[in-house]
Request: fold
Amino acid sequence: MQLQSENASATFSLSAGGRLASLVVFGNELLITADSDHFGWGAFPMVPYAGRVAYGRFALKGQRFQLPITLDPHAIHGTAWNQQWAQVEDGAALPSRGSIETPLPHPWPLGGTVRQDADLQDDRLRLTLTVTAGRQSMPVLAGWHPWFRRFLSTGAEGRLSFDAAKMYELDGVGIPTGKLVAPTQGPWDDCFTELKSKPAIRWPGVLELTLESSCTHWVVYDKPPHAICVEPQTDAPDSFNRDALVLEAGRTLEATFTIRWVDLSDS
Reply:
């Protein structure tokens, strides 16, 4: 699915988990594009769970479940990232708007569906995820995993501006304990909450992104030398084993993620 505005284009891969495969703004590709590492490119929806589920295990209403181990020893980033999605034909398609969807089949054991709506304008891209439970209740933790380029083709290096009041303490295997602590100095592979300002990435002399979301939690992974990942999520990783949000049959969860940009080429 290809969307176009005057200043930007957005391409979604239906065969690679409905991910935003390319985002070009003012002629600059902002995302790491197709890579052999399924988790390492684009901006993919994380659903029905985001981040790690400890050892792939969780329980719901007395029943225990085992998810596939996708980053040993844990399950990570949901199951929809490698599924085939389908474009929604709603009869009112515009060059700047589109929708895609997919069921949540095996290996997710509890069914349901997910839809992603995209609205591309001259100054921003707004994404909306809607997760709907099927015939039975299900826990849900949704979000996005964007891989922004640290270096644009111009050579400009992106600088992250991120300020949060609290960070989740991690145990020895990278799972949040549930305890909130004062944020450490980066680089990070951590989950934060209670943001003091909107996250931003600035490539001097080129452009600046400001990130907004209805999500209350953000994972920042800025350790790779080539990329900056700023990931909005509806809760911290492994919430399935703490206080999971449970959707009853037929109920929905909606989350939004907006990427705004400003041209800095004249500054």
Remarks:
- The domain at 2-263 is CATH 2.70.98.10 (Beta-galactosidase; Chain A, domain 5).
- The chain has a mean pLDDT of 96.
